[in-house]
Amino acid sequence: MSIATHYDAIAQCNRCGFCQVACPIFRATGNESGVARGRLALLRALIEGRLQWSSELEEPLYDCLLCGACTSNCFPAIPTSDLVIKARSEYLDTVGRKSIHRLLFDKLLPYPRRLHLAARAVALGKNSGMSELAGALGLLRIFGHDFARSEQILGRLPAQSLRTRFKPGVYQGQGQKLRLAYFVGCGIDTISQAAGQSTLALLRRFSSSVQLLDNNCCGLPAWSYGDLDAARHLAFLNLSLLDAGRFDAIVTDCSSCTAFIKKYPLLFAGDDHFEEKARDLASKTMDVSEWMTAEIIPFSMTLEGKRITFHDPCHASRGQKIVKPPRDILRQIPGAEFVEMPEADWCCGGAGAYALSHFDLSMQVLDRKMENLKKTRADVLVTTCPACIIQLSYGVRRHGLTVKVQHLTEVI
Fold first, then answer.
1. In the prediction, which pLDDT does 140 show?
2. Do residues 191 and 141 share a domain?
């Protein structure tokens, strides 16, 4: 669908400038092209024929974090992030997809076993130091022009995926009710496995059974890149796999996955069969913080006497309006002190794989987050997104802090 069909929404921008206050990229660069009204002006120029589609548009289209902060600060609530994604899609139709993205979206993400093998190879390269040598030789530029520098964001990687250690299937729970399904996101599966193990243990503790799903990627990476067909294909695979009616709830500990699964009905609008299946799945899908608020009594011996704070993933606070549940949980932990972090809902600069092509911008956004973290004097920084955990953990190392970064399920 052409971006021209969204002209009326784009034209609602009256260039008031309120988006400047909320945009992490504008606050880092001061460039008008990096703020919502600048991006909307670009899209309007393309529609009106004052600007032509070309490869020169890649940077202004792809340096957006898609955090949605601009929309929250916009009087007509123009969905700039969604419009940028539509523009990226049309850009790809004109310029074409890069080979690395065709490999990722077509050959790896639809096949969990292949993804696990690829992750294992990456872990071997990272943990052995081979990736540093490859970076020095310039062999990693195929993954993004900043990949060699952004590779340092990752710490030591697990040698096996979560679902290699815990096979997909039904696990008996200790509770008396609730049949749950656990949707495992790619980041939890291949990197943040401590969070995944904690989530699985928590779900089993408070349910009669938990089915560890053999799901594919939710599709968000492809959607964010603008490859809408690949995103729909990944969503289709998950819809074909999942029968939402078999479960009381489908829980995921990646706020990005949760937010995108809840968007599945939009991906299949007009297809009566799959739109209905998508609605059923979306209605049963819960962010783990939503489920925890309803089902558990928080307790944590490890947080006794600790000061804790919380970072809001963009896909939780703005994508799903989930702000109160994780804070309610943390405030109830006996013996722990919860401290609100300034700008807790500002993007950390992770934004999936943003640093692969925009390392310097990502670090500027991250540094602002770390300065706010320092003001809390917290011992533990909690969040609910694996991409945020990776980015924030690197920020802590980068700034020489002793703060421990953990997923919400790890601290309960």
1. 41
2. no
Q: Determine the pLDDT at residue 100.
A: 87
Helix (H) or strand (E) run with residue 234 in it? helix 228-241
Domain that holds residue 120: 99-153
Q: Last residue of some domain: 95, 110, 125?
A: 95
For Cα atoms 289, 298, 166, give the angle at the middle one, nearest 5 degrees.
60
The pLDDT value given to residue 8: 96
Residues in the chain with pLDDT values less than 50: 133-143
DSSP for residue 377: T
**Short-list 158, 202, 148, CA closest to 178:** 202
Strand, helix or coil at 224? Answer: helix
Q: Give 170's Cβ-side CA count (13 Å radius).
A: 8
pLDDT at residue 143, rounded to an integer: 45
Please tell me the total count of domains within the chain. 4
Q: Note the pTM of the prediction, 2 decimals.
A: 0.92
Cα angle, residue 319 at apex, residues 63 and 24 outer, rounded to 5°: 35
User: What residue ranges in 162-240 does DSSP mark as E strands?
Assistant: 169-172, 179-182, 209-212
Cβ of 233: how many Cβ atoms within 10 Å? 18
**Which of 292, 325, 349 is the last residue in one of the domains?**
292
Nearest to 34, CA basis, from 45, 46, 44, 22: 22
Counting every residue written for the chain, the total comes to 412
What is the per-residue pLDDT for 118?
Answer: 84
Q: What is the CATH number of the domain that holds 73?
A: 1.10.1060.10
Amino acid present at 318: R
